[in-house]
Queue: 4 jobs
Job 1
Amino acid sequence: MKTILLPTDFSGNSKNAINWAIQFYSKEEVNFILLHSYHSLQSGASSVVSINEILRKQAVEDLKNYKEELERTFENKKHTFGYEAIYGDAIHAVETTTKGKENVFVVVGAKGMSGVEKLFFGSNTSEIIKNSSTPVFVIPENVTFNSIDKIAIAVDFQKNIKDDLFQPVLEILIKSKAQLRPFYVENSEVVIDEKTEQEVTNEYVKQLNQQQFTITKINEEDPLTGVQKYIHSHNIDLLVLVNRKKSFLERLFHKSFSKQVALHTDTPLLILHD
């Protein structure tokens, strides 16, 4: 059974992401865990203990009520719900909750901007994406669940990828019967030689169990603009990015900070970690 971790601050944004996740997994047996992290401002030792206990009790009560609300709203016998209130920051709470568990995913919301934009600015969401060891879905604010018909993978042509890196994507392809649309952005800084392209393509074909696999090349100096153009022109329902050092995703971070470029898209993301 899958475990889906649902970090929440009880905002409309996080609740929207949670609704998306429940609908996305509506036909699967899933254990959902609502997760709330809390911390207090520094003060005297005795007062901090008292405040933390108050915050913990309030968090537990809010989580219990929210769990019951979700059970009433969705009434899915395939789903079970639990909850955790953990002291500390969001990434500590996520890592504590997922430790020792297998087949775990995290679903987070991206408030006030698109999913890709939210990766590049300080937030709990960006910390979870950068530091979590589990796959992370990022659901932009106000995006409601629709069928997944087209999945795009931003290929970075890094060799020696993990053997099971794309297993989550393969599972989605099988259950949704979606089309797979791999692409990469080439510019003056990133030019891929034919040998590397073929080696990486063969690895993707193997992991994703694809008989036909064509990687579309987008010529664009700004990687963010290239991604934006591809998503919009192909009506992509889910964008898959791989998070690793010196990767395409890291270059997106750099470009975003240096140019303050905002990619306006309402496409959900799936972040994998290699």
Job 2
Amino acid sequence: MKNTYLKRTICTALAGLMMAMTACGNVTEEKESPASKKSEPDTSFSAAEPDNGDKPAESEISLTVKPLSSVTPEKSDEMPDDDFNASYRNYAAEFFKTACAEDIKAGNNVMISPESVMMALGMTANGAKGETLSEMEKALGGQGIDTVNKAMQYRMTKFMNSEDITFNVANSVWVRDDADRIKMKQSFCDKVKSVYNADSFLAPFDDTTCNDINGWVNNNTNGMIPNILDEIPYDAVAYLVNAMAFEGEWASPYAEHQVNEDQTFTNSNGEEEKVTMLYSEEGGYFEDENTTGFLKYYKGYDYAFMAMLPAEGTDMVDYVAGLDGEKLKNLWQTSGGKVNACIPEFTYDYGKELSDDLKAMGMTMPFGDGADFSEMAETGTGSLYIDKVIHKTHIELDRNGTKAAAATVVEMVDEACIEIEDPKEVYLNRPFVYAIIDTESGTPVFMGAVNTVNG
């Protein structure tokens, strides 16, 4: 095997689960399962259904739910402008660095979905006012909530209408069925339904609701994230949830002779691991002063795996600390030319509670009793704030393609082009960073880092 390595930071933005609170009055009671709805988007968000063999069995609902909005979700064909794409890349890089730094230093594999977290927090921000809203907007890249709404509406429409890959995106809001503690505003329920196609439900917030939310996440991640909640605490009054599932086959599949077992990957501790390597010639080579990497496209060429290999001798922690939106943009825009490449097959799960990370990004007020979410709901105590933001992801990469999923839950509580020489080589046989990017805008949907393949 040749001694060259790929320097590519994998950003996995898996669009995440958010917990939402919604308790509106005067709603018609009907038997319906949020878990079995499979986020059936309106025709505005129609997606190619994956093969039934790939779907988990849909969970049976265990409670009577009360839908809180019947508005029709809108679709958008207005692509976000360059300012939004730039702010999104900056947000994605900052979020990746902040949330994953400790695990990367410890030599662990990581993956986050900036997309999932933005959708979950974007829904939540529609219920915020004043300084609470301002801090959330700043943490999400500095764009106003109306701009975020329009961009998420466009991206959701695009994801769900992908023809050559399967990309499911679903949002929901779950509210404690106790009008003395929380009453959701109809305007909020209608807003998140219109923009995010988020169904809102009243639920008893007991063990059955916990199972229902987990079943909804399991269904909408195609079984890749079987659960997101362990229990529902007494003080929780709403959950805003996002779930995403990406399944893409390679545009250029690997032939049998390109799949080689018993190859060597040197992990972050300097130990050699035996792995299955996928060898190929790719046409999306890029480099800068401390990175070599490449793009490998999925069918349809709307999405690509972006591999970033730090320069030999570069510490992974230092490399990730130097990532920003401009670097991601330049690597994407300058890709071109042929490269001999290899990628190890790998699969892993990642999860983390994001409260401290979001506070470090300047979002402090939404987590305290001084938060103003009065556009979302009225509470008996007059206090409503974010307690937790739970994020989980999953990725499988092999000779056929990639499967990735993300879920984000927001828990709300009350007071109770360069010159390319021939040919280049980027072999991912040591720790690297990666991203699954939207090739229209160069923005990462998922970002991750591989420190070990067998660990």
Job 3
Amino acid sequence: MSSRRQIHQHWSLLGLWYRLADALCIALGLIISLQRGLTTTANLYVTVAAVASVVFYLVAEAGGLYRSWRGVSVHRELAGALACWGCTLMALLMLGFLTKHTAQFSRISMVTWFVVTPAMMIVARIATRGVQRALRSLGYNMRTFAIVGVNELGFQLARNIEASPEMGLSLAGFFDDRPQRRNPEIPAELGRRVGSIQDLVDQARSGAIDRIFFTFPMRAEDRIRGVLDKLGDTTASVYIVPDFFVFQLLHSRWTDILGLPAVSVFDSPLYGIDGLAKRLSDVVFGSLFLLLAAAPMAVIAAAIKLTSPGPVFFRQRRYGLDGREIRVWKFRTMKVCEDGPQAVQAVQNDPRVTPLGAILRNTSLDELPQLFNVLGGSMSLVGPRPHPNALNEEFRARIGGYMLRHKVKPGITGLAQVNGARGETESPEKMKKRIEYDHCYIREWSLWMDLKILLKTVFVVLSRKNAY
């Protein structure tokens, strides 16, 4: 049996395992939740588990959750599972409302089920990944890949893949028909596995190579076409890895425009299931944070009203997603409410700041009303911090790529803020450093990154550095 056929069988079994495991997690989650309070017949809960399993299966199939995740970060797979569960919950709640059955269920039991089920799905997927990694370290469920082109891009690709053993890919070698003297020397850690194009074709025909990556420069169209013609007599999966590193990519992905393939150069990472997962996390955690902060916010509002004349809240114009103007909520900390064409940044010991405002700014409590922006959808918990519009207009003309930070929603906290790039930006150099962090966040975004930033924010706020 060829290795490629074995691989397809492995994935078929793995896909079946995930489908069964998810249904089992839904059922077990409900059983565990029933220990928290049973207020109706067991048959009704069995029906709920069955309906939930079917709905989740349909959502997961539509969202591509059961596709092969080989070579994709586990965080993205977990985000996909959470997003599918979130969609399932919304469908179940809507169905329960329409059929008027919601009153028959224990609220504690349902909340427990909503939380326990995705937790078990996460554990199941992490455990499965661990088993896969262990098996692949022993040589099971591996694919062999070849790189066409002896060049720096090929070397980097090989390093990236070999540094990620969980991908289950083993390097067969580099293949190129150019004279050896024209090719750079292969790094020692990658070995000296070099062959001709005919060697590649012969190995691919025999089934010894499963994946082939072209790393020729984009201008080498004739060479690529010639090799592709020869590989047309094989069943290997063939990929072209463009040398896009010559461009300053923000976030790139392949898309389809009326049947024509295209690759984005400046794009948002929050599309499809990732965008849904991001929004669900904002709504869930934003609601939780607002619930916890409600009492302190009421006290702060009363204190502002009692200690200085003027409104409690200050709404300032900012640029949001795609550069559209939004209004950002803050507790008023100054004696004035400036929002004009000239941006005057707050400085240390700023005379415009009220005594109470100084405390709020020093502890970042003045930002709490932005939770309303998060729940309203104009902001996110984590993302590039929004700047005053006047400041935006000033620096977009001075810093290249400045407006690319608006490819995602602005956040209450961000990667720049937890890495020390917060507070006053009195020089282009400081602003440029902040923009670099914003671009890095967009390129490398994941829900796990958001969680780490939220946790780091707690320590940054407690340190009170550059907060005034």
Job 4
Amino acid sequence: MKYTVVVGEHTVQVDVQGDAVSVDGAPIQARLASVPRTPLRQLALDGRARTFAMLRAEDGWLVQVAGEVWSVSVVDERTQQLRELTGQGKRGTGGGVIKAPMPGLVLRVEVEPGMRVEPGAGVVVLEAMKMENEIKSPTGGVVRSVRVVAGQAVEKGVVLVEIIEEA
């Protein structure tokens, strides 16, 4: 089965055929395992192991690795083709809202209105589960508004920052 995997602005094609896995056409050794009764996963890529937390989100997954939270979308080949046929497969080049991926306490706001941000730039640091999580912009653009302040408690899904596409 072929998948399109999007992490922020980075897209790769993953092909899984039984135990054989390739990323953008290059074969790799990969093994993914769940840790029972936890959101933790263990991934071994070409012999290098990494443990991370993976939570379901509105439009994909939230993946926490080494204190950083990434928004990840995984779409199988058939779904991707259907989206493209119906015009739903196009991703914007900028703009959108960045929401809290989990409840927590805002430790720092790293952007301000009018500031230009690149894809992957840190915008807010949120303390959740006794860990600092840097929330990154999935897209580039200009900060339209910042809806939170340091010290503010937020719930999952609360808008933290709005980004608009630069004209």
